[in-house]
Amino acid sequence: MAFDINISLSACFIIGGVVCWVLLSRLGRRTIYLTGLTGMLASLLIMGILGCFSGKKVQTAIGIILVICTLFNVSTISPACYPIVSETPSGRLRYKTIVIGRFVYNLVSIFQNSVTPRMLSTTAWDWGAKSGFFWAGTNFCCLVWAYFRLPETKDRSFGEIDLLFEGRVPARKFKTTKVDQFAERGEEGKIAIDGESVAQRVVRADVPVA
To answer: What does the DSSP 8-state code read for residue 193?
Structure first.
């Protein structure tokens, strides 16, 4: 069974790559990321609940849920993070943002690689599948942050993204806000979006795309 699960996990990376080709061309980065986080959250919670029981069938179910959770990850979150990292930062701060993001990623990886073996080891914390509760908690925090702070950048130029940030448009409204990056500047020298100054545009950022 362990061999079959390992083969299934390896197959997930191949299948996930193919699925991602379709998703990235049709769905927005924000949609893909939130869907992946939600799917992983549900999988981790189920895994944690199953960890409260014992039996061969329960162990098999835990293995299947682990494969499903991995498939969610490699089909959505893992590949979607690359266009998000490259498209979201402003041109002037892009390389600094990527470096800081990579630095934080490595710090989190050190933490994860340190605590996960202790969670699973029978001679240490011996949490087993109950570790899913812990990672579901961290996943939920990421999901809440992404819902409020992750903007949609699909089909947006770098100039439009910069204008949306400068206009302080909420991340949730990036997709439905109309932007004209070639509009003339206002009388006070402010960048105009849809013929309005940035200050005016903030109030009416919920105007949907025609």
So the answer is: E
Tens-of-pLDDT digits for all 210 residues of the chain?
788 888 988 899 999 989 988 998 899 999 999 999 999 999 999 999 999 998 999 999 999 999 999 999 999 999 999 899 988 888 788 889 899 999 999 999 999 999 999 999 989 899 999 999 999 999 999 999 999 999 999 988 888 888 888 888 888 888 888 887 776 555 443 444 555 555 444 444 444 444
Q: What is the DSSP letter of 74?
A: I
Q: How far is CA 28 from each of CA 81, 83, 106, rounded to the nearest angstrom?
A: 12, 10, 26
DSSP codes, 98-160: HHHHHHHHHHHHHHHHHHHHHHH-TTTT--GGGHHHHHHHHHHHHHHHHHHHPPP-TT--HHH
Distance CA(153)–CA(160), nearest Å, equals 9
What is d(CA 17, CA 76) in angstroms, rounded to the nearest whole number? Answer: 9
Q: How far apart are CA 185 and CA 163, in angstroms?
A: 12
The pTM of the full predicted model, rounded to 2 decimals, is 0.82
